[in-house]
Amino acid sequence: MGLMKELRPTLPILVAAAVMLSLSGGIRQSFGLIMPPLTRDIAVSVSDFALAMSVQNLAWGFLQPVAGALAVRVGFRPVMLVGSLLYIAGMLTFALADGMLGVMLGAGVLIGLALACTATAIALAVGSRAVTSHLRSLVLGAITASGSLGALLSAPLGQMLAVDFGWRAGVLGFLVLALGMLPASWIAGRVDRLPLPAGPTGKRDSAKAALLRALRTPSFMVMTAAYFVCGMQLLFIATHLPSYLAICGMDPALSAQALAVIGLFNVFGGLFFGWAGGRWSKLALLGGIYLGRSIVLAWYFLLPPTPSTTLAFAALMGFLWLGVGPLVAGSVAEMFGLRWQAMIQGVAFMSHQIGSFVGAFGGGLIFDLLGSYDLAWRVGVAVGLLAGLAQVSFAMLRPVRPVPA
Question: What angle do CA 391, 393, 394 make, to 5 degrees?
């Protein structure tokens, strides 16, 4: 009761941020379901589609620091509303695509720009500002967890419409869901009315000063480098798991089920790591996530896929999927304070998205060249183990000392 009483004044903001994140993240996470029927219908290959997803992630990553800085200058509400409109425009362009140009512009560029304004970094920055420091990690975990529920709705809906009416119907179904981002963005924008905190020095630091401080902080730079591997592993799975299952002769519905299971277990993972981040080292927990993912990835691809192992893999990977969100956001807030959190977190996210480009496009390129995903997953496991060990080791050697509230 005490927790709810403390959260009640800002609860609409937190719920709206979670809904916005749920829709923006859940829809784009389900794009892999569209790839098999799309590549059969228009002149777009697996590597072409993977390239569009890679461009999406690059556009998202490189604009994320800009969106974070704009949120400080003009407010979160305008940034989130523009992002929601870009998302809707991207889905419409994607649905009308007749070739690579339409897919690249709609699913790639426009959705990438939209995600920079509506996805993890912005949603968690809104949540961070709306609560006190002792509740922050738990609330960020809850937003991440509830934000993952969009995949539970979008994946089955997109699969059903694509199978029964074609891939364009699946994309239009995603567009209808995306309309819900507009009211969510408006309500979450109430966070602009809350006082803007000063920086860790007690002054309202400039964006340049905050950025230079981050780039000179070893703990932040190690976290950012490891974040590259996070993006590479996750986008390889999200983009290529449906194709891999189709090659192995699995029922197409299994792909949607697996993505939905990932979305469900994201809830448990987000809540757990949000809770754990308030008690133990966030950076060490990040390293543990990367190690765990790599072990699960190796186990799954070393075995012949079956419905049971695929769903078990989805559950384990889902638990380890979005738990990085509250840990990275909480670490940035601890290191640098709240004023420029979205911008600095966006800088780390650029590394994540470059990794996403490598995972999505590299996986497609390797498949087109070798006719197999074997090399791609082996590389993902190797670099994941290396990143996890480096992150855990550095967290133990250089623990973060939170800045004054």
Answer: 65
Count up the domains in the chain and report the number. Answer: 1
Residue 55 within a domain: yes
Report the percentage of the chain scoring pLDDT > 70. 91
Between CA 358 and CA 377 the distance in angstroms is 12
Instruction: Read off the CATH number of the domain in which 136 is found.
Output: 1.20.1250.20
Kindly state whether residue 402 falls inside one of the protein's structural domains. no
pLDDT digits 0-9 by tens, 71-93: 888 888 999 999 999 999 999 99
Residue reference for tokens 């090659």? 247
Residues 6+ apart with CB under 8 A from 344: 65, 68, 210, 211, 214, 220, 332, 336
Closest Cα partner for 13 from 150, 141, 139? 139
Report yes or no: 235 and 353 within 8 Å, Cβ to Cβ. no
> In terms of residue numbers, what domain contains 62?
10-189+206-397
Structure-block tokens of residue 40: 């059969």
